Amino acid sequence: MKQHILLTIISLLVFSAPAAAMASPVDPSAPLAESTEMQGINDEANHVDVSVSGTNIQVHAVNCQGATLKVYDIVGKLKYVAHIDSNDKTVRFSLGKGVYLLNINKTTRRISVAG
Predict the structure, then answer these.
(1) How far apart are CA 114 and CA 97, in angstroms?
(2) SS3 per-residue string spanning the chain
């Protein structure tokens, strides 16, 4: 499990730099959520939206029934787990200030919580 998390962090660091260099200017009024989606076989069937407001996180998952939402801090410690029990599920939770990796099925998002 720790190897998987470490590989995910390394992938985010390696592959997000070129994309960041080509990105358009940041809208200062936009929420503080950053995301990187990992490619997989069923990514198009699953849809995951993440929004961050202060320390509150909202995850809206579509077509992810039976999946497990896991949130890790930047050192790989599991901070939150939720089971997705329907095809259209919204999960709300709070985290302390920091950077986290959110994983559901084959989708991984990096979120920043500003507090």
Answers:
(1) 5
(2) CHHHHHHHHHHHHHHHHHHHHHCCCCCCCCCCECCCCCCCCCCCCCEEEEEEECCEEEEEEECCCCCEEEEEECCCCEEEEEECCCCEEEEEEECCCEEEEEEECCEEEEEEECC
Q: Is 67 exposed, middle or buried (0-12, 13-18, 19+ CB in 10 A)?
A: buried
Number of domains the chain is built from = 1
Please tell me whether the overall predicted TM-score, pTM, comes out greater than 0.70 for this model. no
CATH number at residue 76: 2.60.40.3080
Polymer length in residues for the chain: 115
Residues of the domain holding 92: 2-23+30-113
- What was the pLDDT predicted at 13? 60
pLDDT in tens, 46-104: 789 999 999 999 999 999 999 999 999 999 999 999 999 999 999 999 999 999 999 99
Output the six-digit token pair for 8: 């995910």
